[in-house]
Design a protein that fits this description.
mainly alpha
Length: about 270
C-alpha cells in the first residue's frame, strides 16, 4: 500500500480561467493602489524612504480586504470543516487567486525597485507563498486549507498598522499605539499561531491523501514558519510590552550609579 497518493483530490467544478482572471485583475488593482498612494504621498512625519511607506500601505490594504473576506468564508460556509482538503467554492477560490495576485504583485514591485536581494527574507517568503498558492489555485486543491492559512492576514493587518504608526512617529506611550500593539499580539497568537499549528497537526493525518512532492514542499514551508513565528512573537512582545520595564530598570541603574537626571532622560529617549 502506497504511503502517498499519486494525485491530489481536485475540484473539476472550479474553472481555472476565473482564477487566472482574478489573479491578473488583482495585480492590476494593487498597481493602481500603489499609483494612488504615490500621488498622495507620505505624511511629512515619515522619515524612511517613500517606497517602504507605499509598499507597507499596499500590504495593509491587502491584509484588510483578505482578513474580512477570509473570516466571512468561515461564517458563510461552516461545512468546509467536514473536509478542508476537498471542500471548495468560488467564494474561497477567488480569495486564493486574489492573494496569489497580491503576492505576485509585491514580488514584481520588489524586483522593479531593486529590493529582491536587500530584503531576501521577504523574497523567500513570497516565493514559498506564491508557489503553494498558485499550485492550489491552478490545480483547484486544498482551497479550504488555504482559508486556514490566510487567517494569518488578520494578524498582518495589525502588524502593518503597528509599523505604519511607527513610521509616522507615533509615541510608544500613546494609547492608540498601545491598543494596536495589544491587538497585534492577540491576533498573532490566535490567527497566525493557531492557524500554523492547525495545519501542522492536520498534515499528520491526511498525508496519505496527497502526493509526496506536495506533502514535503508544504512540510518544509511549515517547518520554517513554525521556527520563525515564535521568534517574531517574542521580538514583538519584548519591543512593545517589555520595553517600559526594561527602560525603567536601566534608568534606575543609572540613577543609583550617580549619573544624574540628564542621563536618565537621555536613556528614556533612545531606548529601542
Amino acid at each position: 500500500m502506497a504511503i502517498f497518493n499519486d494525485r491530489l483530490p481536485d475540484n473539476p467544478n472550479l474553472d481555472i480561467r476565473y482564477g487566472y482572471s482574478m489573479m491578473i485583475s488583482t495585480i492590476l488593482f494593487f498597481f493602481i493602489v500603489n499609483l494612488v498612494i504615490s500621488f498622495v504621498g507620505a505624511p511629512k512625519s515619515v522619515q524612511e524612504d517613500a517606497w517602504k511607506w507605499r509598499n507597507l500601505l499596499v500590504s495593509w490594504v491587502h491584509a484588510l480586504i483578505c482578513s474580512v473576506w477570509d473570516l466571512s468564508s468561515f461564517i458563510l460556509y461552516p461545512e468546509m470543516f467536514e473536509d478542508l482538503l476537498v471542500y471548495s467554492n468560488y467564494y474561497q477560490y477567488y480569495l486564493v487567486a486574489f492573494s496569489t495576485g497580491y503576492f505576485t504583485y509585491d514580488f514584481l514591485d520588489m524586483i522593479y525597485n531593486n529590493k529582491i536581494f536587500k530584503m531576501w527574507e521577504v523574497t523567500l517568503h513570497h516565493l514559498a507563498v506564491i508557489s503553494m498558492f498558485w499550485y492550489n489555485m491552478h490545480h483547484r486543491v486544498a482551497i479550504a486549507f488555504n482559508m486556514v492559512a490566510l487567517l494569518a492576514e488578520v494578524n498582518s493587518f495589525w502588524l502593518h498598522s503597528r509599523k505604519l504608526l511607527q513610521m509616522i512617529q507615533m509615541k510608544f506611550e500613546h494609547w492608540f499605539y498601545k491598543v494596536v500593539a495589544f491587538m497585534n499580539l492577540v491576533t498573532f497568537a490566535i490567527f497566525r499561531g493557531a492557524a500554523l499549528v492547525s495545519i501542522t497537526v492536520a498534515m499528520c493525518f491526511w498525508y496519505q491523501r496527497v502526493t509526496a512532492l506536495y506533502y514535503f514542499s508544504l512540510g518544509s514551508a511549515m517547518f520554517v514558519m513554525n521556527v520563525i513565528n515564535p521568534i517574531l512573537f517574542w521580538r514583538l512582545l519584548k519591543s512593545d510590552f517589555l520595553r517600559k520595564r526594561r527602560t525603567d530598570h536601566k534608568a534606575e541603574k543609572f540613577a543609583v550609579n550617580g549619573h544624574g537626571n540628564n542621563n536618565v532622560k537621555v536613556m528614556h529617549e533612545h531606548v529601542n
